[in-house]
Design goal:
The protein has a single domain, classed as TIM Barrel, CATH 3.20.20. It is an alpha/beta fold. Helices cover 42% and strands 17% of the residues.
């Protein structure tokens, strides 16, 4: 969490990723402004976030509740930061997350949605959320199966202190990024279907990481979550 950050190298890597995201959008006939880069700063020190914020990065993603809240607190004097909670979230920690993050990407059960709602309602805020979907049917991974996603989005729509903005996916790891493409396309198609069946706008598709963000942008990502390629390798946790 501490230690020296090579600011120049960090900003150079961030610029490269930003440029690669932009090029992927342009080559897919999309407007670069449609895709937001979320810099995944988990396990990296607040100092690294401070450096990128000064360079013009606003969206940061975190996965671990305590670490994220400590980092947010350390950087509270920096204006304009948007914090994204992207990690798996246990229901008993929902109360620390609701209202503290601009967007929660990882709502994968109605129970979790209800816990977030309870806290957001108590605080008098509306929490923006994404429903995490698991299209691979991997039982060890989080995310609602595609058949369950409709019921889950419907459930979230009934909770006035939650606002569903779209879908998120974390496909099975594969070193060949082309193997992620069917999941990205599947998520977009599922989003289109849910929008139609529920008559609701779900504009956000959170998909793509260090290894496969180009494919994700080509398939319609509006939020890419990139950690390693910007910040370097994470220490083992
Ligand atoms: C850690 C993490 C990322 C970033 O992964 P990289 O491969 O380092 O870019 C993206 N999304 C989620 C959900 C993560 O937990």
């Amino acid at each position: 969490m501490s230690g020296h950050v090579d600011a120049e190298a960090l900003v150079a890597r961030w610029r490269e990723v930003r440029e690669a995201v932009k090029q992927a959008a342009l080559s897919a006939g999309r407007r670069p402004e449609e895709v937001r880069l979320v810099a995944v700063s988990k396990t990296h020190p607040a100092e690294a976030v401070r450096i990128l914020a000064a360079a013009g990065q606003h969206d940061f993603g975190e996965s671990y509740v305590q670490e994220a809240l400590a980092k947010k607190e350390e950087l509270r004097h920096i204006g304009g930061l948007r914090w994204h909670f992207i990690g798996g979230l246990q229901t008993n920690k929902a109360k620390f997350v609701a209202g503290a993050f601009g967007l929660v990407h990882s709502v994968d059960s109605l129970k979790l949605a209800q816990a977030l709602h309870k806290r957001a309602a108590a605080e008098g805020t509306v929490q923006d959320v994404l429903v995490q979907v698991n299209l691979a049917g991997e039982t060890q991974k989080r995310g609602a199966a595609s058949e369950a996603a409709l019921a889950l989005v419907q459930g979230v729509l009934e909770l006035p202190a939650l606002a569903p903005k779209g879908l998120m996916i974390l496909p099975p790891w594969d070193e060949d990024p082309e193997r992620s493409r069917p999941y990205f396309r599947g998520l977009r198609e599922l989003r289109d279907e849910l929008q139609e069946r529920l008559s609701v706008a779900l504009p956000e598709l959170s998909m793509g990481m260090t290894n496969d963000f180009v494919q994700a942008v080509e398939e319609g990502a509006t939020l890419v979550r990139v950690g390693t390629r910007i910040f370097g390798e994470r220490p083992p946790r």
